[in-house]
Amino acid sequence: MDADDCIIVGAGPAGLTAAIYLARFHLSIRLFDCGSSRAASIPCTHNHAGYPDGIAGTELLRLMLAQAEKYGARREAVKVTRIQPQDGGFVVDADGRSFAARTVLLATGVINNRPDMDELVHAEALGRGLIRYCPICDGYEVTDKRVGVIGTGDHGMREALFLRGYTRDVTLIADGGAHDLSDSCRAALDDAGIVRLDGPCTPIRVDGDEIVVNTAAGEQRFDSVYPALGSVIRSELAVAAGARATDEGCLEVDDHQRTSIPGLFAAGDVVKGLDQISHAMGEAGVAATTIRNLLAEQQPIRR
Asked: Which domain of life is it from (predicted)?
C-alpha cells in the first residue's frame, strides 16, 4: 500500500496544529479523529491569545480544521486501534482498515476523571461554568466567588491552593468519604484558610445559578466546582507499540517530541507537561517541523 508521509492520531489543538504545518510543508498526511477532543467541551476559553472576548472550544477546533483542510489535510472520522512499526515506517489500523505511514504523530490527549453525577446534569453544569476542570484556564472567572474543589491528597491540596489565588472562599471536599491528607497538606490548607469537608460528594445537582454538593456536613452551595480527580492519559496505542511512558502513562519524548520509537512522535496532553492549548500547539509545531526534516533526510523534499 502507498504510504503517507505522516498519520496524525487525534484532532484536538495539537493534532490540528501539526496538520496545518505538515500540509503547508507539502507533505501527504491523514488526520484520524474519533471525535473526543477535550477541547470540544470548553464552553468558552478566555486565555487563548488572539480572542479577547473568548472563543468556544468547538469553534476553535472548527476554525483550525478549516485551516488545515485549506492546505490539503484530510480528516477521517475513525478510531485507531493499533500502531505497528514495520519496514522503517508504520501500519496504522483504524475501523477495520490498514494504512501505511512513514511517520506517526500521536496527539490523543487525556480524559478528565469526572465526579459521580448524572451525565445530563454534568453537561449542563459544564456548559454554564458551574463545573470547571482547568483553574489555569479559567480561574480568573471565579475571582471572589464561592469555589468547591472535589478531591483529596496532595493533588486536591495543590488545586485548592492554586484557586486560593483567585478567591478567599475555597472548600476542599473529599470525593469518597474521609480526607486522606498528610500533616503537611493539612497545615498548608489551614494556613491558606481553606475549609475541609469529608464526602461522600454525591449527589451533585444544579439549583438555579448554584451547584450543590452533598457532604458529611450537609449540602454545600458554590458558584463553581473544580473536580481534582486526575485524568486518564490516552497513550495506550504508543505504549502497545513499545514506546516508553511514565508511571502515570505520559509518553516520554525528547526536545523534538520524538518518542523512544524512531518515527513516532507525540504532542499535547498525552506528553507530560502543562495541559494547555497553547503548550500543545507549540509542541505540535516542533513535532511537525522535526517530522519534515526527518523525511527530508530520508528523501529530498523538492518541488
From this structure: Bacteria
Q: How many whole angstroms separate alpha carbon 274 and alpha carbon 259?
A: 18
Pinpoint the alpha helices (H) of the chain: 13-24, 57-70, 119-127, 135-138, 153-163, 183-192, 236-241, 277-298
Alpha carbons 96 and 93: distance in angstroms, whole number = 7
Asked whether residue 1 carries a pLDDT value surpassing 80, the answer given is no
- Rounded to an integer, the average pLDDT of 268-288 is 95
Multiple choice CATH, 3-111+231-298, 3.50.50.60, 3.10.180.10, 3.30.1490.20, 3.30.160.150: 3.50.50.60
237 Rama sector, left if φ>0, alpha if ψ -120 to 50, beta otherwise: alpha
Q: Say whether 289 sits in a helix, a strand or coil.
A: helix
Q: Which CATH number fits domain 114-227: 3.30.428.10, 1.10.3720.10, 3.40.50.150, 3.50.50.60?
A: 3.50.50.60
Average pLDDT, the chain: 96
Query: Within a 10 A sphere around the Cβ of 199, how many other Cβ atoms?
Result: 19
Q: Which three cell numbers stand for residue 120?
A: 445530563
The residue whose grid cell reads 469529608 is 198
In DSSP terms, which residues pair with 245 in a beta bridge?
251
In angstroms, what is the C-alpha Rg of the chain?
21
pLDDT digits (tens, 9 = 90+) for 159-197: 999 999 999 999 999 998 999 999 999 999 999 999 999
- Intra-chain end-to-end CA distance of the chain, in Å: 23
Full-model pTM: 0.94
